[in-house]
Amino acid sequence: MLAFPVLACLIGASAGAAFTFIPRIRYLPSRALGWLLAIAPTTAFIAIASQFPRVAAGEALTWRIPWLPALGVEFAFYLDGLSALFGLIITGIGALVLIYAGYYFTPKHADEKSEVGSRERASHAISTPDSTLLKTDAHFFLYVLLFMTSMLGLVLAGDVITLFLFWEGTSITSFLLIAYKTKDEEARSGAFKALFVTGGGGIALLAGLLFASAISGSTDLTAILRSGDALRNNAWYPVMLGLIAFGAFTKSAQAPFHFWLPKAMAAPTPASAYLHSATMVKAGIYLMARLHPALGNTPMWFWLLIVTGGATMLLGAIIGLRQSDLKGMLAYSTVSQLGALMMLIGEEAPSAFKALAIGVLAHALYKGALFMIAGIVDHETGTRDLRRLGNLWRLMPWTFLVCSIAALSMAGLPPLFGFLAKETLLAAELEDVLPRLTRIVLPAITVLTGALMLAQAASLTLDTFVTKPGTGWPASRLDPNDECSGHDLHAHEAPAGMLLGPAVLAALSLIITVFQPEIIVSLLAGAATAAYGAKVKVSLELFHGINSPLILSGIAITLGVVLFALRSPLRGIPAVPVLNINLIYDGVLRGLDRAADLVTRTQAGRIRIYLAVILTALFALVIAFGGLWRVFDSTLLPNLSRRLFDEPFSVQTALRAFGLLLAVAASFVSIIIRRDLLAIIALGSSGLAVAVVIALEPSPDVALVQAVVDTLTLVVLVLALSRLPRAQRARAEGLNGAGGSGRLRNALLAIAGGAMVTVLCLYAFASRPRTSLVTPYYEQNAKPLTGAADIVGAIVVDFRGFDTLIEITVFSMAGIGVFSLLRYAMKKRETAGLPAEGEIEPDLATLLQRPLPPTITGIDGVRTSPFIHALAYVVLPLAFVLAVVQMVYGHDQPGDGFTAGVTLSLGVGFWYVVFGYDETKCRLRFLRPGLLIGAGILTVMAGSIAPVFLGGGFFSPFDFGAALGLPLPKGFYISTSFLFEVAICLAVLGAAIFIIDTLGHPERDLE
Amino acid sequence: MEIIKSLSIGALFGIGLYQLLRRNVIRSAIGLVIISNAVNLFLLSIGAYDGVVEAYAKAVGQRSDALPQALILTAIVISLGGFAFVLALLYVIAARYRTGDSDEVKGLSH
Predict the structure, then answer these.
(1) CB distance A724–B5 less than 8 Å?
(2) Average pLDDT, 10 consecutive residues per value, chain A (1007 residues)
(3) Beta strands in A655-744 (DSSP E)
(4) Both A21 and A141 in a single domain?
(5) A-chain residues near B25 (CB < 8 A)
(6) Nearest to A337 by CA among A278, A384, A290
(7) What is the CA A358 to chain-centroid distance, rounded?
(8) Residue contacts between A and B (CB atoms, under 8 Å)
(9) Which residues of B touch A728 (CB under 8 A)?
(10) Which end of chain B has fewer beta carbons closer than 10 Å to its terminal beta carbon, N or C?
(11) B110 in a structural domain
């Protein structure tokens, strides 16, 4: 039932944003763009207002879309009085701000381009319509509308994850808007500051919200609001509240995190009016008010919010008076007001929430208006410096009038709305539920704050419009160069459209209290009720007889007038050097930079250093967190040692030990031997020794694959070695004997790694399970289900067939990768015009026409003996026969498609070695690797899909031979497994030929 | 046996690491192969059953565990593909920097 308004709001705002991408709209004059895009928030405003009667009746509308059902997270929306109040403020002020921004971004005299209207304009001069997006101000409207979408989503969210999503959205759009003048260093640093502070708060908030949803069992807002007791009584309550409050405090600029807000004033003024006073900074207030029924009413909640809010309120007001920048003063008074609102949420009394609702609306109205006035003054005069401004009332009478009304509201004077806000605030602070001390302290600081507010409101109105420039400032703080500049401000009255926004807002401040419309009363009552969790009555009566709030208000007003009169000497008092948060922030950032610098020192630009660093870190992690010491637990150790000593001696055991020893010894030889070719051969023997160990496992299939793969590895390595130019090879070989500190470091690292792996193995062996759930299943079902006696083969081509399909695809990809990598490198060198002795790749046709050379030269141009030639002619056909046998009988005997493929490739590789590249290419033309890979993979596909049409499932075994009634020799089946074996063989052969072919390609031009 | 196995696998791994860290790129490639051998041996040895006969349906007696065998069968082939690709990369680097010495590959330093 909430679908309509939510969709209208979100789609409206984001569609408005999308419109800015349409060139015809983007390059409209800013004024027209502003009016046009204001339709979006207006629609949303109407959409929310249309639901108002039901909301006012106390109903909470919800709308849910499943999002992450497995986690119970929904894209949920929720509209009650509190959301409605914020939603209407966001959309209402949003519409006015868009219209206002249109004028703001139009130069003061659109036809006099030489005159610089405002500082914003200076860096964003309008250029020809066909220039880039950056040059138009459509960008600004886009960001504002995106912000509006996020902000609406935030206040309408009915799920904490949804809420968090939109919360971050507001932080990001705020960042974009503050940094809008991208060329301005201050704007950029201000934007980063805001992003770091609010973004950091956002992360804390997420953690806090996850706590809350974990405790209440749901991320749904209504569920969380219902489980208040569970939340408050949970042991994690302080942590949860701390995290959530951190998020809210950073967002709502509560001391000591307030420092980002004044810096955010680098944003264009429409954004400051909208985000940094009326809406976004109230997100924290909204969040705390929203969660008050669930988390509030505890001593921690009370003291946290009262102390933070109270301190922020006073601090903001004191610093504000000292500001000479119009926007700076407004920013600090916003901080102060946000503190007051936060303080009110802490208090457990209906009157506090009444004051909260009134305060939120009153502040949005007058502060929005004043920000826009500041923008107008800036736009018309080119400065926002109060020391230079003055005497403008004659030139800008209407602006002066609007400013005065809004300032009266800010000052808290009757009959404006601000007065009511202050009265209710004071009344709430005098409630009996408060501890006695706070009943004295809070009204006292509120009176002082109220007085300072009045002084500021008066200062920013009178010092701008009435007094002479420089009035109200001690001489020491005036810029001597600017002494007289105030006189030549060429100010004009702002256009009516620009005044519309502030005028409407200021007028509302007056209308609400004078006429006390019922609809506003019920809106405020609804908001206060939702935040308090119980019925709150709201009346907008200004006068309740002579009572304590009124008396205190009177004191505040009197004190304010005195402060205003004394503003010049007060501003002359040197600032108290309190701990400067900005300095801490800068220090933290610098520290981060230093740390990053230290970390990048490890990246010395040398591959081996990187590797060493990575490995060291990995070992450190495994040793620290891997729990390897548990090997020496009393429960695990006997497991091992008994097996060592109790094992009866057998030939098998002795052979295994021998195989292992051989493998280690051969690999060790590969280290100490100096010639690379011999090292490669040592590596080959090590691999064969491993094959022996595997064969003794006993597992003949794997041993076979290991043996052939090891041989192929050897061939590939030799080919690669031969491709490296001789001089390079010699130089690299010379390094093998080179010693130095690197050698020691490597040795230590290797020993550490080896020791770690040893311990890891011991741990794994000692604690491995002695039964398996899976293996017995395979053992029992291999023969009946797949007809294969070879269980390993059955697993590879049948039980885990899909796995194997992917595996051969990966292998084929590796082959193609090698091919494309080296072909590309070769092509590149060709085009680079490097000396090429021979043809890189002779055309096949020319190759065929060429007579055979008298002596066939093998790899590296070395002559090969006729005996070896004869052998090569025998080996390849033999390899074919072997491969076929392995495929045909593979499911009952050792051997399978892999072995077959690798065996074949070995035969082909032998040809490359014996006959050389060109000759082999010429003679074995049928070996087209791409074709083989394609055929292989397509065969698997066909073989696995075929059973689907024959009554089986995808990849289910099927015996085609038996189905067709073919008379086949014993032990030979034309089944899906057989097809699979053939396919594997083809694909492996294809990829291996790609590899051999590419690496065996003659390369004479490298040096 | 298990202790001997652990020591051997650790030794193979250490030797592989040492080779991997050397300046000569061919030696690095050799190191890679040795390490993958060590890992395959490790995987093979942590099967649940220490077999006496091979994993065939008709074999009588305690069969070796077929599951890790099937897994490393795949692993061996894949590591061959990966190894070939690494070689191609090494080759491209060697051609680009005209050296077989990994310390002379300076493209990463600034």
Answers:
(1) no
(2) 66 72 77 85 87 83 83 86 92 92 78 41 42 60 88 91 93 92 89 92 95 90 90 92 95 89 90 89 94 91 94 91 89 94 92 93 93 91 85 87 93 89 90 85 92 92 86 68 52 85 92 87 90 86 81 91 87 71 85 88 77 88 82 69 59 86 94 89 94 89 92 87 77 70 84 91 84 87 82 86 88 90 65 46 52 55 77 90 86 82 90 80 83 90 83 78 78 81 90 84 50
(3) none
(4) yes
(5) 732
(6) A278
(7) 38
(8) 329
(9) 94, 98-100
(10) C
(11) no
Count Cβ neighbours within 10 Å for each residue of A506-527 and write b for 16 or more, e otherwise: bebbbebbeeeeeebbbbbbbb
Q: What is residue A473's three-state secondary structure?
A: coil
Retrieve residue A513's tokens: 């209290």
Q: Which residue, among A607, A796, A812, would best test binding to B if mutated, counting the most B CBs under 10 Å from its CB?
A: A607
Beta carbons of A803 and B73 less than 8 Å apart: no
**Distance between CA atoms of residues A504 and A507, nearest Å:** 5
For an interface test with B, which of A619, A662, A667 has the most B Cβ atoms less than 10 Å from its Cβ? A667
| Boundary-marking domain end, from A595, A630, A653 | A595
A273 and A314 co-located in one domain: no
Please check whether residues A273 and A334 belong to one and the same domain.
no
Q: Which domain holds residue A58?
A: 1-109+132-200+266-282
A640, A701, A738 member nearest B3 (Cβ): A640
**Measured between beta carbons, which residues in chain B are less than 8 angstroms from residue A717?**
26, 29-30, 33, 87
Nearest-by-Cβ selection for B14 from A657, A751, A988: A751
Burial profile A580-592: b = 16 or more Cβ within 10 angstroms, e = fewer? eeeeebeeeeeee
Cross-chain Cβ contact A778/B89 below 8 Å: no
Tell me the nearest-neighbour CA distance from A886 into chain B, angstroms. 15
- Percent helix, strand, coil in chain A, to 5, is 75, 0, 25
